[in-house]
Amino acid sequence: MKKELILISALALLLTGLVFPQPSSDDSTGSNKITIYFFWGQGCPHCTAMKPYIGKITAKYPQIEVRSMEIFNNEENSKLFDETAQAYGKTATLVPTTFIADQMIEGYNGIITENKIEAIIAKCTQDECTNPDQMLVEFRSGLTSSTSTSTTTSTTSASTSTSTTTSTVTTTTRMTTTTTTTTTSTTTSMPPVTTSTRQTTTTAPELGGGSDGNDTGAISIAAIFLAIAAAILLFKKH
Fold first, then answer.
1. CB-based contacts of 32: which residues, under 8 Å, 6+ apart?
2. Is 44 in contact with 95 (CB distance < 8 Å)?
3. pLDDT tier at 129 (50, 70, 90 boundaries)?
4. DSSP annotation string for 37-88
């Protein structure tokens, strides 16, 4: 009876394991995708030394996508290397250079470099990390926004210049109006001078008329004296 119970228990455990499989403890099966940019150069000894490790992590972690790009003989890859470094706030100076998550790892120093990459992979397997693709998108978006801002600033400056010019023209017009008003005032003040001239002219005939009256009186007196003298001479002759 005991043997039968033991056999039944063993079968039950076996069936439980088949129906309810235990979860795997292998972290390499994480579902978070990890993108790695690996820039290298033809003839670079450190690049050659690092390539086997890149192949190793690609096989070990199926969620990893490695984009391997040679830059010495490929101008497009070289430009992308520079742009990716700028997106990370760095300058592209040497190869091999590995971009993973938000890290830029330059050179290859054997186990030290490998341990650093492995630590980032372990972190990004548990928690989703950014990747070089996202970093480039954000960087390019920032450049576009900066260009738009610059264009807007230039347009605003042009509008300000136009407003300033218009204001200057208005000021000039007002000055011209003021000058015209002054000239008109000067012209208006001329009639009193003209009137004075006319008064002088009017007075002149009056002065002339007075002189004629005096002359006529003198002639009359002379005539009287002549008449008296003529009468005396006639009286003496008789």
1. 63, 124, 125, 126, 127, 128, 129
2. yes
3. very high
4. EEEE-TT-HHHHHHHHHHHHHHHH-TTEEEEEEE-SS-HHHHHHHHHHHHHT
Pairing of strands 64-70, 34-40: parallel
CA distance 108 to 88: 19
The two beta strands, 97-100 and 103-106, are: antiparallel
Hunting for tokens 């996202």 — which residue is that?
Answer: 134
Q: Which pLDDT does position 156 carry in this prediction?
A: 52
Joined tokens for residue 177: 């109006």
> Which one of 18-22, 24-28, 83-87, 187-191 scores highest in mean pLDDT?
83-87
- What's the pLDDT tens digit per position in 62-96? 999 999 999 999 999 999 999 999 999 999 999 99
**How far is Cα 5 from Cα 63, in angstroms, rounded to an integer?**
46
Cβ(37)–Cβ(67) under 8 Å? yes
DSSP string, 168-210: HHHHHHHHHHHHHHHHHHHHHTSHHHHHHHHHHHHHHHHHHHH
Contact 101, 47 (CB under 8 A): no
